[in-house]
Amino acid sequence: MENVGGRSKKILLGIFVKLKKFFSSLFKVFFGNKLSGMGTSILVFFILLGIIGPYIFPYSTSISMEDQLLAPSFIHPFGTDLWGRDIFRQIVAGTSDVLSIAFLAAIFSVVLALVLGMFSGIVGGFFDKFIMFVTNVFLTIPSLPVFLILAAIFTVDNAVTFAIILSIFSWAGMCRSIRAQIISLKERDFIQICKVMKMSKGHIIFKELLPNVGSYILINFIIVMKNAITGSVGLMLLGVASFEPTNWGAILTSAKNNGALINPHSYMWLFAPILCIAIFQLGVIILSKGLDDTLNPRLRVM
Amino acid sequence: MRNIVELRNITIDYNLKKYSLRAVSNVSLQIKKGLITALVGESGSGKSTLATSLLEVISTPGAIDSGEILYFGNNDLKDIRKMSENELTAFRWSEISMVFQGAQSALNPIMTIYDQFEETYLVHNRHMKKKEAIKLAKQKSIELLKFVNLDPDRILQMYPHELSGGMKQRAMIAFSLLLNPKLIILDEPTTALDVIVQGYIFKILKKINVDMGISMLLLTHDIGVVAEFADYVAVMYGGKLMEYGTTHEVFKDRMHPYSSGLIDSTPSLLLDIDAMKPIKGSPPDIRNLPEGCVFHPRCDFCMEKCKTIEPKDYLQNDHMVKCHLLEDVWTQ
Amino acid sequence: MEKVRHFAKKVWMFLYQFRYFFAKLGISILTLCAVVILSFVLIVNMPGTVIDSFAMQLSIQRRIPLEQAMILAKQMLNYDPDSSLFSRFVVYLQQLLHGNLGISIKNNAKSVNIILKELLPRTLFVSSISLAISFFLGTFLGSRTTWKRNSVGSKILDGYIVTSNAIPDYIFALIIITVFAFNLGWFPNQGAYDAMILPGFNLPFILSLFFYATLPIMAYVFSQLSFWSMQMQGSALGVLGEDYINAAKARGIPKRIIVRKYLKRNAMLPLVTQLAISFGVMFGGAPLMESIFNYPGIGQAFSQAIVERDYYVVQGILLFVSVIVIGVNLFADTIYSFIDPRIRRSS
Fold first, then answer.
1. What is the ipTM of this complex?
2. ∠ CA(A256), CA(C281), CA(C320), 5° rounding?
3. How far is CA A107 from CA A110, A134, C9, C80, in A?
4. Contact (CB<8Å) B106/C253
5. Domain termination site, one of B159, B180, B201
6. Are B94 and C252 inside 8 Å of each other by CB?
7. What is the pTM of this model?
8. Which CATH number does the domain housing residue B83 bear?
9. Domain containing B25: what range?
10. What are the pLDDT digits (tens) for C85-140?
């Protein structure tokens, strides 16, 4: 009786220790150096803004024409738009939409790239050649025109559709890279040793190959997020996708289409989403550079 | 015997972002005029770094921390470290030239052999009329290539990747003679070449030394080469100079345990294979050099004081040995 | 019999030498096929209402009865929903091979070919100039800052690169058109040239072309300059690590010659294939950029056609641009093996 209790305690303790180790290494990766620390902070700020922001600064779509195009003030930090609605609160409300599109697009791209890249690298043969041809097509043809066509055919009315379209071009480069890494890893000694020791294929894939491409995937995940935001705002500006009016890109488009370029009173309307987009992208860039420094140590000169 | 170059208390560090590596530590070395001096040491002993410092072309982020490099080539005394950038550019190749290790990548891959010869010649002869200089450059290039037994008509038009290893090395030797230098540094000129080509190249080098009176600094880890070609030998270990003297003395007297060990670890044609005795242990980690005498962990004669106190340089005539064994025997 | 064999062997050797080229050619053709199929899918998905409204338009314009207009419309568009998908595809291919890209439904049945002919030069004008400026200036800055790592210049360049990565090119375009065109009024906010000037090889027209292209070029250069600087820095960094740089220094070759002949030239070589890819990227960005500047090139025509659901214009421009991009890529791939002496002369 005692033994059973003692054993389950040990198992729990083991799990606890493993979790602790996992989280502390995760912390080291994201906050390891100045750059990644700053980048992570910016991203976390926006994530929090997206989740709890709308509760602190709720946004109502009610129009009040007497408040239109007000200058920035304490009540309206970013002023108001053409219909008297607070821009700051719009941005807060749209944060979650922006983030979810970016996140979803990144997940789709990475999963697709990982699965196809790994299969391509491991299986080889005709399958491999075919996948490589497909990636070649996606890498050659300019993406925006095809985005436009797809967005026009499949009306974009939710974040998932949007994310799928945005990820169609992002997976190709990653897939090639992962395949190349898998192929070079396949030939390395430690994989051969695993084969000789008759370790199961699953073990080889998950315990040996994956961790090696892990850092590449992490860095590219956030880069795809950045590209997805750039692409989504671009598509919104062209008027082929805009289902969530508080999305920063939608605010930007609305501003542009309602004379913000000409009317100095609306400059804030135009500028606020640009600022947020720029800061977020900056955060991603800094984070990716920081992660690169941590995960790919190179002999640093001077 | 006059010196052509004197290095005095040279210390060279590689300054990386987080720490510094001391590649060369307080080395004083003379290179005798008209003779071949060999600089021996394992990889990482600092010999390449020391050699490139003579031309102030140490690969970044290496930099000379302290010391003097005195050059006596032109009946006057010049400190190479004190030269201005312009003086250095003129000095390089015309007074001291160098044959790099693995000439594979010492040449610009997108220029023909001739273009590179001509470029170097013109850069150093700007006072001449261009047409005149080009003519002389061509003449000299052809002459030098013939000297190393290469066919100028073929070789000059080629790109570096089109030459074999041995051909490239000979071309680099010819290149090093372009401006009639007084000293040529050869960094492991025959590593990666087979023994027959090696012998051939050393024949050419000996001819250059004897016929033209050009001094040579030969970097190598091959003891056999040293025994056959060098007049003087300097032995480096862990960035420090362990022994210096004539080849005859160093080989015969066996004063320093490390040099002795190097000689013993070379297989002999005459003796049994069992007579070959490698030095125990492995080369030091430059980031974590042993205290006291750098060689003490691997030394068969290690004493207590070797572990904490660095040995002084003990001198007798022209023979220098850095070892505690000579404490009461030789002068400091 | 012997002669035939000998000849066949010679042909085989010829093909074998250029096997890489033929492989790339094959892939290019297959890629093109994929694009053609995509365009066809697009056409096939055109809802029937489009035909109806086009027919109505024709009937009004040409004063013919609706039924006749319907027949005419179907004929002009090679649209026959009753025949099988396969035969429609064959007809479609036939049209393409004749160089017929279709007609614009919203634009008075204007031939897409003619639209392309009119608008392509303007897009090419802006694209080529932007690419040239970004490439040469970018490689110059990139090689210079790699040589002198800690100078003021390289810090400024780094700051600029981060900024231009955070701000997408079209947002920068929005900013400059707001500031310089709408606010300060220094530059025009639409068009490719002054409508008052007669087009031709006269100086006022050419100056006007440049004047109207200034803002778009500025916007392109802003984002591309950082791309080329970074590419060059990456390539140059690799070259710097090579022994021949140090060896050149040992030969007393002055710094500026090393930077020019040893660093820059060697680092530029791998960038040539990138040049081709950039060309494609610029065509890709054109729809958005030209819309913002109201610059009448094929990009703007494309995005307008998307919004207006002018299907044939869309697929026509897509096909045309794809052909150019695929062709340029093939060209760059092939030419690289000629300019790098290491590949050229390997026997």
1. 0.84
2. 100
3. 5, 20, 52, 41
4. no
5. B180
6. yes
7. 0.78
8. 3.40.50.300
9. 3-95+181-326
10. 787 788 788 877 877 777 777 777 778 888 888 888 889 899 999 999 999 999 88
